[in-house]
Each structure stands twice: as structure tokens, then as C-alpha cells.
Amino acid sequence: MADENNMIAMDTKAQEVQAYLEQAGHRVRNFPRPTLTSSAAAEAVGCSVGEIAKSILLLVGRQPVLVVTSGDTRVKSGRLKQVSGLSGKVTLPDHDEVVRCTGYAPGAVSPFILPKELPVFLDHSLQRFSKIYPAAGTNSSAVGLSFSRLLELSGARIVDVSDIQEQQIETGG
After folding, report:
1. Is the pLDDT of residue 86 over 80?
2. Domains in the chain and their CATH numbers?
3. Dihedrals φ, ψ of 30, to 5°?
4. Is residue 128 pLDDT above 50, yes or no?
5. What's the predicted TM-score (pTM) here?
């Protein structure tokens, strides 16, 4: 029964986020299948992996922070500690902690309508693109925004905490 109640709460949160985005003049896209990776999201949206704005909850020591970065980047722990002013090991939280800290299930974390005490960092890597696509409250949704609009609607702080990863080229054999 607890899982059912959690699902209802998540649906309510998703509806709240999507209403917020639509009231702000943005069209939310909902997909028939989950987009749990940046690659899957890019395929659903029809964009490059770099244009996906992935939202990652990380723990610095025991303090949660949310990093919104390009789908083709990797967050660098040292830089995250420096910009956050926190110390300790940088780790990924478990499922329950993601829900508790953000109100979203892993895979559905969106940079909108977050608890005020959660620091939100928007990585500069997303500025490379005219339009970027963060999740819109579910694990199968996205909304297209400019970097400046994402900054405005999320209340985030611009930082440099990620490095662009070289794409691996698959060859047929």
C-alpha cells in the first residue's frame, strides 16, 4: 500500500510540474516509454545527447545537492565540492533518499519545484545549445527550454562542475 501511495504522490508532483511549465508558456512532451538515460531521452526527443539536461542528486558528505548538466558530461567531484563549499565524499544517494530530497523518483528528477533548502547547480556545459531538454516530472517526459529560461524557472546557480565526455563510436563488425 505504501508504494501505491508513493505513486499517487509522484503523479501529483508530476502534474504540478507540468502545470507550472505550461503556465510559463512551455509545451511538455510525454513519451510512451521511459527515458531513463540521456541516450534514451535524446532518442525520444530527437536531439543530441548533449542537449539533454540531466538532473543528478548527489551527496557531498551527507549534504544533498542537485546538479543539472549536459547529457554528455560527467560531474567532477572536486569542482562540485569547491562550488558548493562542502566537504566529504561525493556519492549517489539511494532511491528513498532521492525521493525524500527532491520529491521525485530516480529517473524522474526534474529541476523544477524543488525544496527551497536543496541547492541547485546548473552546469555551464548546457550553454552550448540553443534549446535543452530537462525532465518534466516523470521518467518519460521532457520540456524544451533555452538555458536562460531553465536558469530562471529552476532558480539554479550557474557553475562549472562537469567535463564533456568523448563519445564512443560504435563500429559494425
Report:
1. yes
2. 2-164 (3.90.960.10)
3. -110, 130
4. yes
5. 0.88
